[in-house]
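User: Please predict the structure of the protein below. I'd like the answer in structure-token form so I can feed it into my own downstream comparison script.

Assistant: Understood. Taking the following sequence of 480 residues as input:
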Amino acid sequence: MIFILDDIFLKRYVKVFTFMDNKEEAMKKRSLVSSVLAITLLAASISACGSSGNTAKTDAAKEGESASGKQEEGSEAQATGQGDASTATVVIWSPADEKGIEDWWAEKIAAWNKEHPDKQIARQAIDRADSYAYENKITTATTSGDLPDILFVDGPTISYYAANGTIVPIDDVYTEEDKKDFMPSSIQQNTYDGKLYGIGPTESSVALYYNKDYLDAAGIEYPSDTDISKAWTWDTFYENAKKLTTKDYVGTNIIMDKGEGLIYALEPFFYENKADFINEDGSKAEGYVNSKQSIETMEYLNKFIQEGIANIDPVKDEFLNGKAATLIGGSWNIADLEKSNLNWGVSYYPVANDGTAVSPTGDWTAAITKDSKNPEVAKEVLQYLMSSENVAEYASAIAKPASRTSSYDKMSGWDEGARKLFKWQLENTGKARPSTPSYSVLSQGFATAALNVFAGSDAKTELDTVAKDFQEDYDTYYAK
């Protein structure tokens, strides 16, 4: 069994050893604690849990490792970025992924290395079977100064790594024309303190899926997938979900997961109600995450749970298996639904009663680290990997929305149906999650608050706690 020390624990642990008079010293202590994030205990009778999908990803990575990471074909020096003195090797770390993506890496790296014998790419695909192996490796490397040249990280963590000096600005990597070609939400997600720190090949979005048969039985008209003015409003969503609820299935599913999925999938409801989680510069949560509008929004969402319209513990694939009439679901759900026999449709993310529309965004992104031995070559590699054509091929390989508008000209299926809707949302209503170095505290705090509210706790009390914990973390480590 592996116990993970989360960011809130680290914060409190460091406080045991310092009065926080010296923030620089506090940060050093926090970094030291971070280097021992995973504590392994002997527990012969207990095995760690992981999703079945990770096994496939690990196997795919192993199949493509020699081609993409040069771990077998190349020398140990090349794999670690220390090759011939005349050769600049750019080392990339990214999570092990599905076979289609591993094949993409192998093809792109081989093509680059053939054309640039003096500027080589070596990638290490890192397994995330226990969910934290990748992040723990980054933590250890940050402490020892052994980070790779290019590092892939989850989008919302860009501000954390930027504020802590782990990654460096890359504004000069792309022209202004290139930046305009990327989805606005991608630029927003990867910008911290006015500087661009990362860019990724794909995006994501969330919309409202519905079971056509169940809506037909309830006499409910399908929401539009081409005209957002005919999307379901908050009131319509609630009333229809209530009407759709039967003894055999619930009216909707609003619980994507009980972690990051809560803030990712539900935050647009808050934005639509004119509620921000933090202020513009990411330094304050008091009066924002616990504002009157935020409390109203949490209470609105809680009605679905308290009235039995949605489950706090949804069964696996609840919508796909006909146990929920509608679903607040992601763009990635399309692939499974297309393979199913379900008679389904999709419409826009529910809009506020006044028509205000916001939708989730975000995905993994690539950044150049402080320890890069070849930063200028790393910039060239980043330009190459995130070209319009390469982004199109990457996105197609994993069936995700592309981060570049021009990439869709090279992709099929995104000019009609569900995919067209998700693309439209990204271009018109997409908004990134909050940008703040204390994001992990905010995300974990919000997830805990939402689940507590859904279990019967007071919304204001829970959101006050989120604001308090956020402020304590930010003021301790990042306030200037």
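That's the full token string. The chain has a mean pLDDT of 86.
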